[in-house]
Backbone:
């Protein structure tokens, strides 16, 4: 079993480097692999995504394991900003819907036991970056979650 790890732009992998040269010698259909990678990373357009390709050299079968960009990169993309800030003045805003969607994307990397807890983790990251949620500071947004204001977002 061969393993290749690459960092590709979401939805924009190509047969050129780093994929082509790494996959070519293994006798795989490079375009088939690229197409599959683009399919599974399309939600992360404009962001670098870690992809691990496991290749069975005997059968030429392959399996993909796709990581997710850091929560901070997902938050900045939604807020439309280049970088966060560490100070009190907000530099961007995202919606509670954005928070929930990011929490779902990162569900395997977050420690919270349920979606609410995972959403609060994402809000914590927003706080450290100077991002407000629906115009509120993090503590206020968390309080609203606990009061049930956003209940409809948490119905699975």
Residues:
């Amino acid at each position: 079993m061969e393993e290749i790890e690459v960092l590709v732009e979401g939805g924009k992998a190509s047969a050129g480097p780093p994929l082509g040269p790494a996959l070519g010698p293994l006798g795989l259909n490079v375009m088939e692999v690229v197409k599959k990678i683009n399919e599974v990373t399309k939600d992360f357009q404009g962001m670098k995504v870690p992809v691990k390709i496991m290749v069975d050299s005997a059968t030429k079968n392959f399996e993909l394991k796709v990581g997710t960009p850091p929560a901070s990169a997902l938050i900045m993309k939604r807020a439309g900003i280049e970088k966060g800030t560490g100070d009190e003045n907000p530099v961007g805003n995202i919606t509670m819907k954005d928070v929930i969607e990011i929490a779902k994307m990162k569900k395997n990397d977050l420690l919270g036991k349920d979606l609410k807890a995972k959403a609060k983790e994402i809000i914590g990251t927003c706080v450290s970056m100077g991002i407000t949620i629906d115009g509120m500071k993090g503590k206020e947004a968390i309080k609203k979650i606990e009061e049930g204001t956003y209940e409809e977002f948490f119905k699975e």
Summary: The two ends are 37 Å apart (CA to CA).
